[in-house]
Amino acid sequence: MLSSYFQYIIIIKVLTMLIFMWTPTLSILAAIPYISGGQDALKKLLSLTESFGEYDESQLIGFCNDGIDSFDTIYLDNLTYQYQSVNQTPAFTVGPLSLKIHSGEILFVSGGNGGGKTTLLKLISGLYQPSAGNIWIDKKKVNMTDHRYLFSAIFSDFYLFDKLYGLDTIDTQQVNALLKLMGLDKKVKWENDHFSTTDLSTGQRKRLAMIASLLENRQIYVFDEWAADQDSTFRQYFYESLLPSLKEQGKTIVVITHDDAFFHIADQRVRLNYGQLENI
């Protein structure tokens, strides 16, 4: 009788344990396909990373550069970009846009959220292919995808690498001077051709991205609300010191901004609302 009682107790404990283990076991079994898929994806990424190492960065950059060393005007000629919905039906459309950007000028782009400002910048810099219309550099009709080497851009959704890619030589003193200028020298060090960390606040990450952008020394700079996450000191520095300095160097600068207190800095201002361009 006592033996039967103990057997009963053991059965109850085993059943209780199985009940508590049932849900976690099902979760583990359900996760197996995702784990397997993740392993396959990781293998492909590692393979892709290894393949990058087989190429000379200078050759890749040179492949895009067909010899446009300078320009007078970039002209957007009835440029249109049409987003597609999930079922491939036409959705939001930006344009048609016609705009002249002169070499060495500061262009400010403002407008409501979702109006097409970032889309305009990505069309100009060759990251998006227009659905219709043309882009001219001086008197030559071009595909801006072939001229991305002209641009250095910091978009609002930028990714920050700890290494500087695409630069033939890197002046350590210049990097350290820029780190100090951007107020990052106490948090970030330039060591072994890498930034010691990118684990920073949003404003600090943008300033580190600015350092990388300045070191690229391209002809055209594109900044998508760069000053939005800066304190008043760095916001003022951006508009009143950095942008005029780049202009003095002959750079062309396109900035998305809502900081109306600094609108006077721009040589040209346009507004985008609902995908349509308004000159100001």
Structure description:
The protein is built from six helices and twelve strands. The protein is of the alpha/beta class. The protein folds into two domains: 2-54; 73-279, Rossmann fold (3-Layer(aba) Sandwich). It has a six-stranded mixed β-sheet, with helices on both faces. Strands 2-1-4-5 form a four-stranded antiparallel β-sheet, with helices on one face. A hairpin with a 2-residue loop joins strand 7 (190-191) and strand 8 (194-195). It is extended and about 95 Å long. Keywords: ATP-binding, Membrane, Nucleotide-binding, Transmembrane, Transmembrane helix, Transport. The chain crosses the membrane at residues 6-35. InterPro entries: AAA+_ATPase, ABC_transporter-like_ATP-bd, ECF_ABC_transporter_ATP-bd, P-loop_NTPase. This is ATP-binding cassette transporter.
Break the fold down into its secondary structure elements and pairings.
Elements: H1 2-52, H2 57-64, E1 73-84, E2 90-102, E3 106-110, H3 117-124, E4 132-137, E5 140-142, E6 151-154, H4 172-181, E7 190-191, E8 194-195, H5 202-216, E9 220-224, H6 232-248, E10 252-256, E11 268-273, E12 276-279
Parallel strand pairs: 3-10, 3-11, 6-9, 9-10
Antiparallel strand pairs: 1-2, 1-4, 4-5, 7-8, 11-12
